[in-house]
Automatic annotation (TrEMBL):
Keywords: Antenna complex, Bile pigment, Chromophore, Electron transport, Membrane, Methylation, Photosynthesis, Phycobilisome, Thylakoid, Transport
Residues found modified as N4-methylasparagine: N72
Subcellular location: Cellular thylakoid membrane
A single cellular component GO annotation: phycobilisome
Similarity comment: Belongs to the phycobiliprotein family.
Keyword Manganese: no
Binding residue positions for (2R,3E)-phycocyanobilin: N72, R77, C82
Protein name: Allophycocyanin beta subunit
Matches recorded under Pfam families: Phycobilisome
Length: 169
């Protein structure tokens, strides 16, 4: 598992170079955004259950066929599995936000997930939509908590979406 700093060290150590201007700029920007990243994690932490619940409700309002008898989230077991998946995405996105790196998502969440979803008939498009709804809710809450530039919040959610769909979003 890597974060913004360890991944930079790894890249420069591989070629045996000192940090150059690009590396220092990227370190500067990571540390400058540190307080905002922690504020985002704190905001998510105290609202996680509500964020997941609200994301699910909004997703099922938009795509009610998911919870109809032919839908993948139909039956309480599958409905719960769907919300649990959203909760996984939120928790690991929080780790990635603090790390300033999406490597934790690749290693712990995304590996093999697409294949699992395909074999169970879990629809990718609607899952990606759920992740994007969650991103918007998180961004609104982080902004309400006083973080002025919330652009960095996009990264892990967009990474999950991109990797799941293997397309540009
Ligand atoms: C921490 C990393 C991690 C992830 C990400 C993860 C995902 C994950 N989601 C699963 C199932 C599932 N995932 C969903 C999700 C959905 N269905 C929909 O229609 C919606 C679009 C969507 C919710 C947004 C559903 C319904 C199942 C159960 C499918 C079934 O058993 O038929 C399964 C199969 C095993 C199980 O049911 O637990 C896995 C492994 N597991 C992990 O350990």
């Amino acid at each position: 598992m890597r974060d913004a700093v360890t991944s930079l060290i790894k890249n420069y150590d591989v070629v045996g170079r000192y940090f150059d201007r690009d590396a220092l700029d990227s370190l500067k920007s990571y540390f400058a955004s540190g307080t905002a990243r922690i504020q985002a994690a704190a905001t998510i932490n105290s609202n996680a259950a509500a964020i997941v619940k609200q994301s699910g409700s909004q997703l099922f309002d938009e795509l009610p066929e998911l919870i109809r008898p032919s839908g993948n989230a139909y039956t309480t077991r599958r409905y719960a599995a769907c919300l649990r998946d959203l909760d996984y995405y939120l928790r690991y996105a929080t780790y990635a936000l603090v790390a300033g790196n999406t490597n934790v998502l690749d290693e712990r969440v995304l590996q093999g997930l697409r294949e699992t979803y395909n074999s169970l008939g879990v629809p990718i498009g609607p899952t990606v939509r759920g992740v994007q709804i969650m991103k918007e809710i998180v961004k609104a809450q982080v902004a309400a908590a006083g973080v002025t530039n919330t652009a960095f919040v996009d990264e892990p959610f967009d990474h999950i979406s991109r990797e799941l769909s293997e397309n540009n979003i």
